[in-house]
Known about the structure:
The protein is of the alpha+beta class. The protein has 6 helices and 6 strands, in the order αβαββαβαααββ.
Amino acid sequence: MSVQPLCRKRPSTGSAADHPDYRPKRDRECSEIVKTDLKVILCDIDTIHPYPGNPRKTAAAVLPVAESIRQFGFRQPIVVDADRVIVAGHVRYQAAFTLGLQKIPVHIAADLTPAQARAYRLADNKTGEYAEWDCDLLEKELASLRTDGYDLDALGLDFSGLSAALDKMEADLAPPAPPDFAPVDASTQPRLDQKKPVTCPECGHVFVPA
Length: 210
């Protein structure tokens, strides 16, 4: 079964009801989806366990996520099952270790069956791939943040390759490369205090100026 994004156009600034795929839910249906008793607790990081079968390669994302947490705080809890095995949040877990955090925010999804937990792991990683960037808006946001003096490079985010305009903007903002001076042999260079012989144009006498 192939899943296609609902809309590739720029989202409307109106209400959710303006979206063509919006279907209002009854209160009972909403309560089944939105957990009103959602709890987030602080857990010792040593009591949380990565899922050994996680198929997502996350090494490249750890440092940017760690820097994001350092700058903005740990705003998104790690989701674990009843055995405290990670369901969603492997990168945040690794970033927490990188930052040396002893306690991390955790939501224990004890109501998920083992099969649901495995499916949720895949869905949590895959669904983000269906989103796309609006390069015009992204360019404006990046330019605005740089105008405000915000150092996006410190976050380790790479927006290159999204559009020619973004690539040009990044190139224009990049510091110039240092000049490439070829190494020279000092023994072949004249000394600054060394005086050169001078030949008189009239008599041809060669002398060294005093």
